Amino acid sequence: MGKDAIPLFKGTYTGGEKPHHWLRRLEGQFELTTALPERLHKFTMHLDPGNKAEQWYKKLGDADKASWNTLLEVFGRKWPLAPTVEHTRDELLHRLERRVLLETEIGQLVGDKDEKIYTHVKWAQDIRVLADALEDDRGHLISNARRGLPLMVRRLLPSSGIDTWDTFLAAVTTLSPSRIEDELEQEAKFKSRDDWQKSVDTITSQFQQGTSLQSASKQPPPTYQYANTYQAPRQQQIPRQQATPGAPFVRQTPPHASITTPQQQNSPQPATPQRNTYTREQSNPFISPTPIARGNLFNPQTPGNPEQQTPSRVSNMELAKRAIEFSKVQPNTAEGVTAYREELRKWEEQYGTSREVDFMCSPYPLTPGTQIIGSRECFKCGHSGHISRFCDNPTQISMKEQRWRGRIAAIMFDRRPQMDNAGVSQINVMEEQLPYEPAIYDAGSIVFEEEWEEQGNGAGARA
Predict the structure, then answer these.
(1) Spatial contact of 100 and 148, defined as CB atoms under 8 Å apart
(2) For position 206, what pLDDT does the model report?
(3) What pLDDT score was predicted for residue 167?
(4) Tell me, what's the pLDDT at 223?
(5) Is residue 296 classed as helix, strand or coil in its secondary structure?
(6) Closest C-alpha to 187, from 152, 156, 221
(7) Please, are residues 43 and 26 in contact by the beta-carbon 8 Å criterion?
(8) Which of 177, 400, 425, 451 has the most CB atoms within 10 Å of its CB?
(9) Are 379 and 404 in contact (CB under 8 A)?
(10) How far apart are CA 15 and CA 8, in angstroms?
(11) Dihedral angle, C-alpha 91, 329, 324, 397, nearest 10 °
């Protein structure tokens, strides 16, 4: 190995610099018989000029450079070797299950300029380190690690003969980039087709919903009842003529009637139209004997036209509260982690690993030891006390769980729209209703909200 292969040592830990790694590579250039002056000369030539390491070396006394072992001891005090961290088995298993290769990362190159590798190869290297630390010689945890691969990569793996860590990781590492590109292109076509179908379904649903609301808003015109209050003029009562024995009977004509002779022809008179008006009882609701249906000035109702009732709907807030009620968090213990894995396995068997969490499926299992959803927790790590923008926790939950927590928080803590209430007593804002599964979120036991509620600090974590 030539001298140029060893970078100059700065002593600032920048750029991933590891002092003891650099020193070990430098010692590899020496022979057992290499004299101390030559060793010190090469040590000096590999220090970055004017930087921290060179300034430190110039301040050393002759006693610190009396022997190579003495120089190594002084070097170790200046740049101490980092202590080795021993992880528990539960922590290693948690890291193994959380090492997920996202579909958007497939086909990309990572690493330094001269040592770039594909993301699926880097994933296999990381899994190898964790598997060796877990001492899983029989490959019992291969299925746990396999779930961290996207579906398109799992389809490319052989269906048999990968029951050991060596065969499984070799199958992942040797995947052809061209086959991965073919799978990516096919997935893009499927996604484009699905997005187009979703757009059509959304437009169709909006059209049907708009038609339904328009039909529901159309009410039949009010039916008015009229009464004929026209009364014919009262005729004058003519006293009955007393019959006189032997005298002829004479018919008396009423004073308001005209005598018609056979020679006179009465011209036809137009019929007097009957004027229809409201009766006093019908026009006054306070003395009407018939109960009047409830209505308003803009929607008059009559007994024959009962008021149409608008069916109640399940608000998104109630769905989010029911999801919080159904969710639970296992403790961060060996028993809790085991129960969580079993819940996650059943959920993925029922809905699949690529399914996004919504109200059409049961609530997603939450990482043990985290806060309950809807508790203003951090979406990245699942703990409280900070927000995801400022999260520095190295242990983060899965992206699917992050999106589920974010969806619940968006519903629970969304600000109430500002409405102009001048001259308005009540305004109910119609939010976009999310679909839900009645078998899971039973609408019969949900209390529907009729008005907006002011949000406080949000729901807290349940014990």
Answers:
(1) yes
(2) 77
(3) 94
(4) 58
(5) strand
(6) 152
(7) yes
(8) 400
(9) no
(10) 12
(11) 0
366 strand-pairing partners? 329
Tokens of 277: 């008006």
71, amino acid identity: L
What is the reported pLDDT for 254?
52
Per-residue model confidence (pLDDT) at position 432: 77
Say how far apart CA 41 and CA 36 lie, in whole Å. 8
Residue type at position 37: P
DSSP category for residue 117: E
CA dihedral (129, 130, 132, 134) in degrees, to 10, reads 160
Output the furthest CA–CA distance in the chain (Å, rounded): 180
Phi-psi domain of 316 (left: phi exceeds 0; alpha: psi -120 through 50; beta: other): alpha
Tokens 């009955």, residue located: 240
Question: Environment class of residue 27 by beta-carbon count within 10 Å: exposed (0-12), middle (13-18) or buried (19+)?
Answer: middle
- The CA distances from residue 160 to 148, 164, 167, in Å, are 19, 11, 10
Burial of 359 (0-12, 13-18, 19+ CB in 10 A): buried
- pLDDT under 70 in the chain at which residues? 1-4, 210-313, 415-431, 442-463
Show the tokens assigned to 35: 């004299």
CB 443, CB 421: distance < 8 Å = no
